Amino acid sequence: MEIILPELLNFFQYSIYDKIVEHDLLSGSVGAKIKAKIFIKILDFYRKNIQKALFNSERFKPSYTIEELADLAKKYLSLENMTGEGWLLTAEIIALLEEGVSNIICVQPFGCLPNHIVAKGIIKRLRKDYPKANILALDYDSAVSEVNQVNRIKLMIAIADENLSLG
Questions:
Q1: The pTM is what?
Q2: I need a labelling partner for 64 at 20 to 30 A (CA). Which of 9, 11, 97, 164 fits?
Q3: 58: alpha, beta or left, given left = phi > 0 and alpha = psi -120 to 50?
Q4: For the chain, what is the domain count?
Q5: What is the pLDDT, as a whole number, of residue 111?
Q6: Is 159 a domain residue?
Q7: Residue 114 Cα distances to 98, 141, 147, 158, angstroms
Q8: Once rounded to an integer, what is the mean pLDDT over residues 53-71?
Q9: Rounded CA gap, 123 and 16, in Å?
């Protein structure tokens, strides 16, 4: 097993990109949209050397841009879904599935209701579109017992092992 975490920069760009969504789909200001586009371009500029190295790598792939992540999410939910990680959570799960990562634990910290609703709400549809998807939405806070968390992770791993042996 290997732990793959989404990029932290994605969350910051998602928060900025919401200003573009607010303008395009709601009634946000043009000025906020323009500033958001400029700021995203600045962040992408600082990330370009890493992206180039990943592109030239035989083992790793370049990261998805925030626009590409938004396009992935649009197939499943509205980008107007902005609370918590909103549409970004769905986009990151789809990106992992597209890259061949079929076993995903979506950790929902501190009883984050928006993430809980989005993750649990989208899993059934993702499993339909990605039959090999083994996705676990796991609440991780003080109200959930550690034994329950560990047992659910062990069950998920058992399913992953079974799927691996089936080919």
A1: 0.88
A2: 164
A3: alpha
A4: 1
A5: 65
A6: yes
A7: 24, 15, 24, 28
A8: 94
A9: 26
In terms of residue numbers, what domain contains 101? 8-166
- List, in order, residues 6 or more apart from 140 with CB less than 8 Å away: 107, 108, 109, 110, 149
Give 67-98 pLDDT, tens digit per residue: 999 999 999 999 998 877 889 989 999 999 99
- 99 Cβ partners below 8 Å, 6+ apart? 61
The beta strands (E) that lie in the chain are given as: 103-109, 134-140
**Rounded distance between C-alpha atoms, residue 129 and residue 153, angstroms:** 23
**Residues in the chain, overall count:** 167
In a domain, 149, yes or no: yes
Residue 2: inside a domain, yes or no? no
What's the one-letter identity of residue 55? F
Q: How far is the C-alpha of 126 from the C-alpha of 130, rounded, in Å? A: 6
Who has greater pLDDT, 20 or 166?
20
Q: In the predicted model, what is the mean pLDDT of the chain?
A: 89
